[in-house]
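Checklist before submission:
- one chain only
- standard amino acids only
- sequence pasted in full

Submission:
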Amino acid sequence: MSSRKKSAKPKINSRSLDAYLEPKKALTATDPAEDKLDDPDTPSIRPDPDILTPTSQQRSKRKRADEEPTTDSHRKNTHERNSRRSKGYAPPSTYDHLPPLTDTITPNLFCVFVGLNPGIQTATKGHPYAHPTNLYWYLLHTSGLTPDRRLAPAEYVILPEKYSLGNTNIVSRATKDGSQLSKAEMVDGAGVLDEKIRKWEPEVVCLVGKSIWEAVWKWKHGRGIKKGEFKYGFQDDGEKMGRKKKSGGLFGGKETEEGGSTSSGGRWDGAKVFVATSTSGLAATLSLKEKEEIWAELGRWVNKRREERKGVEREGKEVGGAEKVSVAVSSKE
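Returned file contents:
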């Protein structure tokens, strides 16, 4: 039998042993901070979110984004899709179960108020500006348009007869909010609105909100309104709505500087446009005081016209009474 030589073990002195074991100790040593993790009196140490590595889901999204095509048609379709989503557009079928809101427009009105479109609560109850956070009925009262008291939304039906005021909308269908309407249907609604004004001939059209005036402006001028062209309150006479030619006054009455219909034929010059603030509870661009000041201007104008109309009615009664007395005296003679 052949004998095998045993391999000699390497001799390691104390210095080389320490050099050998030192890296091992460094790898297995614990951080003092880690020893304190189990100490209830020591605050927990959490990783900095700014230096976290991407999750697998994030990496997957980045990978898909890198792999998507970048053709012009793809960019256009992606932009259009994102635009629709950002606007929150809802097609008419979304709320077609809600009934339309009835207009309250009659002849000889001082002012017709034009809202954007009915909200869910307004369409459900059938009353304009029915949401409790809407300031419409509050501003009607504080501006003097309904001077005796603040009306409830359900009392909208008395506005034409008692106050010579009316209501309609630029878009008839209901949505949760205005962002669910398209710009195109708002512009189309401006043409429908102009037909209503031409038919009923109110003295003033009050657009309740800047976005409504922007839609009307684009319908009239074929472009968006510029920053320097916008203003609240009464607009220039060139912006009147509902202008038309006719053979005679539809409802009679003398034309004044404030508006009104003609009595001797020719054309009707149209209704003045007043741009008021939005009354929605979501509209917070202007303060309540600023909104009240803008609405107060319209209130002063309407109350002035009320006094003028009362004066005309008194004169008519006096003339009628004098004619009756004259007829009675002549019959006795």
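Reviewer check: Confidence is low (pLDDT under 50) at residues 24-53, 63-70, 78-86, 247-265.
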